């Protein structure tokens, strides 16, 4: 079996996750119609908090671009890096949460709330595509 070497950038990201203080970026309060189905694992909490940190950095860089004069190539590069890290970290977070929360892969309405609770929201009633297409084409369901 061939050994695969993990790129240093991923090792650094995993280390960065481990060093993150998850209390820096608290979650939203739960809504009344949400059901608590579990707790966010520690690694996912740290990944979520680090993702929020990179989102904040991206937002600050965007403001810098908006109000600063001159070339912004380096700032745009930093913004892209922050965006990519945020996206990757959120994917990692959701992978861990969904895997450890009774495999909630098929559910669209899962969230993270205050106290690091995993919640399931009420699914909106589905829209019948036949009704939409029928209305557009002038056909009525009887």
Brief digest:
The protein has helices at 8-19, 42-67, 73-100, 129-137; strands spanning 35-39, 110-113, 117-120. By secondary structure, it is mostly helical.
Shape category: globular
Number of strands: 3
Helix content: 40-55%
In percent, how much strand structure appears in the residues? 5-15%
Q: Major sheet: order of its strands? A: 1-3-2
Q: Please, how many helices?
A: 4
Could you give the distance between the termini?
62 Å
The SS-based structural class is mainly alpha
- Any idea how many domains? 1
Order of helices and strands: HEHHEEH
Mean residue pLDDT:
85
Please tell me how large the radius of gyration is: 21 Å
Main sheet properties: 3 strands, antiparallel
Ranges with pLDDT <50 over ≥5 residues? none
Keywords:
mainly alpha, three-stranded antiparallel sheet, globular, 4 helices, 142 residues
What does this entry look like structurally?
This protein is mostly helical and 142 residues long. It has one domain. Helices cover 53% and strands 9% of the residues. It has a three-stranded antiparallel β-sheet, with no helix packed on it. The protein is globular. The model has no long low-confidence stretch (mean pLDDT 85).
């Amino acid at each position: 079996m061939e050994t695969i070497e993990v790129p240093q950038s991923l090792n650094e990201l995993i280390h960065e996750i481990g060093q993150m203080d998850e209390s820096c970026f608290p979650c939203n309060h739960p809504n009344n119609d949400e059901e608590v189905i579990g707790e966010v694992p520690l690694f996912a909490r740290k990944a979520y908090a680090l993702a929020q940190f990179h989102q904040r950095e991206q937002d600050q860089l965007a403001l810098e671009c908006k109000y600063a004069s001159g070339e912004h190539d380096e700032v745009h590069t930093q913004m892209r890096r922050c965006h990519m890290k945020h996206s990757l970290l959120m994917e990692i977070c959701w992978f861990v949460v969904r895997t450890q929360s009774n495999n909630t892969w098929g559910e669209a309405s899962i969230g993270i709330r205050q106290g690091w609770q995993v919640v399931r929201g009420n699914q909106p009633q589905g829209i019948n595509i036949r009704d939409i297409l029928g209305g557009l084409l002038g056909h009525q369901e009887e």
